[in-house]
Fold this sequence. Notes:
Oligomer: single chain
Bound molecules: 2-acetamido-2-deoxy-beta-D-glucopyranose
Structural class: alpha/beta
CATH topology of the largest domain: Spore Coat Polysaccharide Biosynthesis Protein SpsA, Chain A
Strand content: 5-15%
Number of strands: 15
Radius of gyration: 23 Å
Strand order of the largest sheet: 8-7-9-11
Distance between the termini: 16 Å
Amino acid sequence: MEHNPFHRIIIKPSNIHLHLNPKLFYHFVFFIVGISLGTVATLYFKTLSFHLQYFFYHGNPASSSSQPPYRSPSLTLAPPLATQPEHSLLLMSNNNTSIRSITTNKVSLMHNMTDQDLFLEAIKVQGRLEKKDDVSNRANPKVAFMFLAKGSLPLGPLWERFFKGNEGLYNIYLHQHPSFNETVPQDSVFFGRRIPSQPVFWGTSSMVDAERRLVANALLDDSSNQRFVLLSESCIPLFNFKTIYNYLINSSLSFLNIFDDPRKPGRGRYNPKMSPMINITDWRKGSQWFELHRDLAIKLVSDTTYYPIFQELCHPPCYMDEHYIPTLVHMKYNELNSNRSITWVDWSRGGPHPGRFGWGDITDEFLNRIRFGGNCVHNGNVTNVCFLFARKFLPNALEPLLRVAPLLLGLDP
Length: 413
Ligand SMILES: *[C@@H]1O[C@H](CO)[C@@H](O)[C@H](O)[C@H]1NC(C)=O
Ligand SMILES: *[C@@H]1O[C@H](CO)[C@@H](O)[C@H](O)[C@H]1NC(C)=O
Ligand SMILES: *[C@@H]1O[C@H](CO)[C@@H](O)[C@H](O)[C@H]1NC(C)=O
Ligand SMILES: *[C@@H]1O[C@H](CO)[C@@H](O)[C@H](O)[C@H]1NC(C)=O
Ligand SMILES: *[C@@H]1O[C@H](CO)[C@@H](O)[C@H](O)[C@H]1NC(C)=O
Ligand SMILES: *[C@@H]1O[C@H](CO)[C@@H](O)[C@H](O)[C@H]1NC(C)=O
Ligand SMILES: *[C@@H]1O[C@H](CO)[C@@H](O)[C@H](O)[C@H]1NC(C)=O
Ligand SMILES: *[C@@H]1O[C@H](CO)[C@@H](O)[C@H](O)[C@H]1NC(C)=O
């Protein structure tokens, strides 16, 4: 993703904030306080023949409990949001192709629910879906791609190509540090896909909190989301969209890497105070980069039994993000999991951090070894395709990756 700031300007007719972006260019006109919305709109229609659309995001999604909250971009004027201008958005364009968030009826994923309320809301909505036995959402399943990133996405341009042309089959969710303030162009697939975030500190429960926050937002945002993939800014796709989509949608099991490590960095991190709720024989380890089916995703945000135990008793050198979900799933939902990860990583170099790959590492041979070099079971069938994603790739890997993408990964140039 490039970091072209998506400039916005604010008009203040009395107390309403409008953000304009004429023509997808980053040129902007500044209007002055005192001009009414009607005047502005009329002026634009008459002089520039622009198609003006305005959307105000109503800033209090929690208040409507009967609807998935952030489905409520309203066409009517909402009350002022003087302190939260990012919650209101006016998009203007002379054609419809540039306004993705309008076609999906979504202006922003932002809300001000606490995690607690968010999780409860997600569970409530799921309960309603199940009561209605709503199969329509399973008929058109989507994959939720959840990016847990510190800040920018240096490999964004590769992902842009990956997603291109597959609208309607996926949703993107982006958890970035709250102080990260770079914006993406309006025509980016990442535009408007940030969720409310909290700072994440490596190795602490804040990492798990961010993961659950992503899952809960994705659950709540779109009931068509049936697969939930956690990715980082250093991840790359190993196949084109359709291949990955089919692999995930066709699988009856989730892809969570779970194993019992008898050594110090495994069972050695178990805290005996967790007994009797959690036995050492239940203790599991695994990579945090999971793929969850919707059934497990709901279980993850519903858990109020094991989370507090980990939060209290698993501190470095016990890393909650490596043990909490694996132990929970092992104890309660073993039958829903394949026990393997679909995100490749290289631990062969030893040490606490996995191998990183840059410009000089990107060759067809290297990538094909990851793509086809395995031996795995997929719905009872043996396949050499074990991995759909890989990490960790450095920003300078982007250029060679874009170069091999059309032929190797089957991404359109
Ligand atoms: C969310 O924001 C609205 C106004 O935008 C405010 O009325 C409400 O109290 C806020 N809720 C929380 C939980 O902060
Ligand atoms: C919409 O605008 C883009 C560029 O801004 C242009 O390429 C495209 O052809 C336009 N589409 C229509 C339907 O006018
Ligand atoms: C934009 O889309 C709406 C319906 O989605 C349509 O009525 C309108 O004609 C479109 N405008 C342009 C400029 O394509
Ligand atoms: C973004 O944050 C940096 C510091 O964190 C600040 O210097 C800069 O002005 C901010 N930019 C915008 C557009 O708010
Ligand atoms: C699932 O697998 C079947 C058979 O391999 C294939 O025809 C289909 O397109 C795949 N994808 C979906 C979403 O069902
Ligand atoms: C924990 O293990 C002990 C035996 O080592 C067993 O008696 C006990 O039932 C186990 N507790 C749970 C919750 O599985
Ligand atoms: C995953 O591992 C557990 C044991 O930890 C086992 O019971 C389960 O059958 C395994 N699942 C698959 C699909 O291999
Ligand atoms: C597994 O193999 C069987 C028989 O070859 C085939 O019918 C089925 O579609 C395969 N399933 C998947 C998920 O590829």
